[in-house]
Amino acid sequence: MGPAPRLNGSTIKWKSQLQLDGTPMEYSWKWNSPTGKPNVRYGVEPIGQFAGTELDPLNKQPAQELLYRLAGVLPSVDLGWTNHFMSTLFDHDNTKYAQEAAAGARLSTSLMVSVELLPSGPALKTYFQPRKLGQTGLMPLSNWESAIAQLDPTNAARSALHDYLRTSPEGQLLNPFCLSVDNLAPATARLKWYFNSPHTSFASVRDIMTLGGRITTPHLSAQLADLQLLVNALAGLPADFPAEAEIPAAASPQYDASAQDNFAELPTLLVGNVYFFDVPPGKSLPEIKFYTPVRNLGRDDLSLARELTGWMEKRGRGAYCKAYVGMLEALAEHRRLDEGWGVQTFLSCQFKGDGGLDITSYLAPEAFHSQRLRKRSSRLRRGEGY
Question: 0.85 cut: is pTM over it?
């Protein structure tokens, strides 16, 4: 994971886009149902010795090595889809990538790995945030489609998504920025395509989550209403806040100044909402997950946790609320939860077939926080990593 942050301000040669401060790690807590238990997951961008050099200009090698090592010990791992997108979403002339970086291009995170700790065993995912030679900003939709179509030429779910992107005012504003695959046999794997929307209004959420009315289910209206209550509560807004109004955001994102250049070519990723569309072979319509960036609301982590756990308790899902808050306090050992925001970064929601809401909280360790560095500096020796 690269050299550990240092209080003396020494330069870290590669800072990840996984967090606004450059931390190459994310945790997540998938909330329990009324009768179930939470699941936890972590994601990492492994950082190698040669990250950003001509040998590995996009820092892909460490993640590839990790995946192949894990495939050797986990029988369920299938890297077929990962290998396909490694070959189709990137160019393969490292010298030219290095030349572009020398000319001022901002090369950053391109490959990440996550591990979901399930009762049945660990489940691996690969995340691609690719960059082609000559690319500035986000990869065009046509490049993504070309890579996916080589794997799955005819796909009804993807066709429905493209129709929405082409014909809907909300769809026309969506920008693709990431793709993830389950490292499983294709028959059981998901292929999730991530998009950013500049809008935060609930009217926008409703339109995208229903694919402009293409998706209809018996529980949909109740699920949308419940999600709207949660989003408004997290933002500190009244329950009747107008659906057409944009959710107010903090004046500016909180990121470490030394990681600011990570987003110089991708400012759109710092605002708005995020969605993924699951479009594996055999689906007639995509399954959709919504992500709200709670880190942008400007509310301290304790207030966010209280709103979220209150919502859970009212719906009979409060059995692990105390454990969640205790986990936050342990993760934020360097500061009090009411002293700032940023440990809780996103909250996601996916509608279940039985009418429930799958809710997941995403968390940042704040590895570069000055108070954490002061505590760490007395424990780390020169040359030690994370």
Answer: yes
